[in-house]
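User: structure tokens for this one?
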Amino acid sequence: MSLSGKTLFITGASRGIGLAIALRAARDGANVAIAAKTEKPHPKLAGTIYTAAEEIERAGGKALPLVVDVRDETTVKDALAQTAARFGGIDIVVNNASAIALTFVVDTEMKRFDLMHQINARGTFVVSKYAVAYLQKAANPHILMISPPLDMKEKWFAPHTAYSMAKFGMSLVVLGLAGELRPNGIAVNALWPRTVIATAAVQNLLGGDTMMQRARKPDIMADAAYLIFARPARDFTGRFLIDDNFLAENGVSDFERYRLDPEQPLAPDFFVPDGIKPPPGITIGDRR
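Assistant:
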């Protein structure tokens, strides 16, 4: 299996998980549209759409940096059209762009509530909506959401209801769209990390250096996504996958290479159902 010549449209691909997925595809010689907002360097966040494009080109792919705010319907439509025009079509769409605020209801500003829902749930919806026309022409079309299994438990909502609603909103798009597009042969799946992933959000918002040392590298999500894209779209859809379990099912046994610090216990991510245990030999700590 190779993604050589395939075209990926990835939201939020200027850094973190989105960029890792882009680079994994680029190593095969894929084309990648980097659909993200960061055109100029951010004081606290490394990377722009242009630095990401340089990395993708160095990795062996072809890059198209696009300034895209997924809240803007017209911008999304134009970006998809530009991608198809440049590369001759679109094979894979990754809805990775996301906003986060881990606050109680009483502490959540409505503008922050609106931002999370506009980017996470609505952004995923609008990108997927307008991508369908292009994906219908692809040989093995996939839509992938970086969103959690639909484990509707109080514990996932009580500490941060607004964020959980917005993140589960992405997964609800998977649930509905997978059924809607099954007759079209377009796969729609979700992928979620078992542990915290070393990203700018973790560094700046979710625990700093301490939590980063308990995280896995974004590469684990990229490797899992790569294997999803290899599956036949007509037969592999409507799945809610956890990164290490899916990799283990596909023969991966070395998970130590994904850890930032093997001496530190891995920190679990939100939303992983209790019944989905890690592969043999993997121990997960708690979030404290």
